[in-house]
């Protein structure tokens, strides 16, 4: 049976046949802004298993400036209620869906924390899940090692009154 998800106002609804994972807490400072919390928890589904049911006209995307390499960090949200949503037109074979959108159990649990060196100073991870750094995440996803002189670039933080 399909698993349904929705935004806060209910204008945008979606369903997936199944989730495959991984299911990760990203602690990077962009995901923290998107979630408004210490981390954004997302789950991976196959694009072929995903359907946007209603509210496509409410979806709006924002591309943050590129920090490392394309593609940009893209946030899609409901224009009416601000809920973070998956992309309207996912172009890869999989997509990430914010786990909080689902209205019933998705059958899996979070498996790790990522970008942990960017976590907020007040954030204390309380569980025993693996904690991966950006180097470990890149290695896991692409098999590549980041160059030794790789510099971690944080999302730009505006400086007031300059
Ligand atoms: Zn909404
Ligand atoms: Zn992130």
Element pattern in H and E: EEEHEEEEEEEEH
Number of domains: 1
The main pleated sheet reads as:
5 strands, mixed
CATH-defined topology: Metal Binding Protein, Guanine Nucleotide Exchange Factor, Chain A
Count of helical stretches: 2
CATH structural class: Mainly Beta
Identify the overall geometry. globular
Radius of gyration: 16 Å
In the CATH hierarchy, the architecture is: Beta Complex
Placed side by side, the strands forming the largest sheet appear as 9-4-3-10-11
**Average residue-wise pLDDT:** 92
N-to-C CA distance: 55 Å
Structure report:
- The strands form 3 sheets. Strands 9-4-3-10-11 form a 5-stranded mixed β-sheet. It has a 3-stranded antiparallel β-sheet with strand order 1-2-5, with no helix packed on it. It has a 3-stranded antiparallel β-sheet with strand order 6-7-8, covered by helices on one side.
- The chain has a single domain, classed as Metal Binding Protein, Guanine Nucleotide Exchange Factor, Chain A.
- Helix content is 10%, strand content 30%.
- It starts with a strand and ends in a 20-residue tail after the last helix.
- The longest helix has 9 residues.
- It is mainly beta and 162 residues long.
- It binds zinc ion (2 copies).
- One zinc ion binds next to helix 1.
Provide tags for this entry:
162 residues, Metal Binding Protein, Guanine Nucleotide Exchange Factor, Chain A, five-stranded mixed beta sheet, three-stranded antiparallel beta sheet, 11 strands, 30% strand, globular, binds zinc ion
Q: Mind sketching the topology for me?
A:
Blueprint: E1 3-6, E2 13-16, E3 23-26, H1 29-35, E4 40-46, E5 50-54, E6 59-64, E7 73-78, E8 84-85, E9 94-98, E10 112-114, E11 131-132, H2 134-142
Parallel strand pairs: 3-10, 10-11
Antiparallel strand pairs: 1-2, 2-5, 3-4, 4-9, 6-7, 7-8
The structure holds zinc ion (2 copies).
């Amino acid at each position: 049976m399909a698993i349904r998800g929705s935004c806060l106002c209910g204008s945008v609804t979606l369903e997936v046949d199944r989730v495959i994972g991984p299911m990760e807490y990203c602690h990077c400072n962009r995901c923290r802004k998107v979630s408004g919390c210490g981390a954004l928890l997302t789950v991976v589904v196959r694009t072929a298993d995903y359907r946007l049911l209603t509210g496509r006209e409410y979806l709006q995307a924002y591309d943050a400036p590129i920090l490392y390499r394309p593609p940009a960090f893209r946030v899609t949200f409901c224009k009416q209620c601000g809920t973070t949503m998956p992309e309207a037109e996912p172009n890869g074979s999989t997509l990430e869906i914010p786990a909080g959108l689902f209205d019933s159990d998705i059958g899996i649990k979070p498996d790790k924390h990522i970008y942990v060196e960017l976590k907020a100073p007040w954030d204390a991870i309380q569980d025993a899940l693996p904690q991966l750094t950006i180097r470990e995440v890149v290695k896991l996803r692409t098999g590549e090692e980041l160059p030794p002189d790789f510099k971690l670039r944080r999302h730009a933080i505006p400086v007031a009154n300059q």
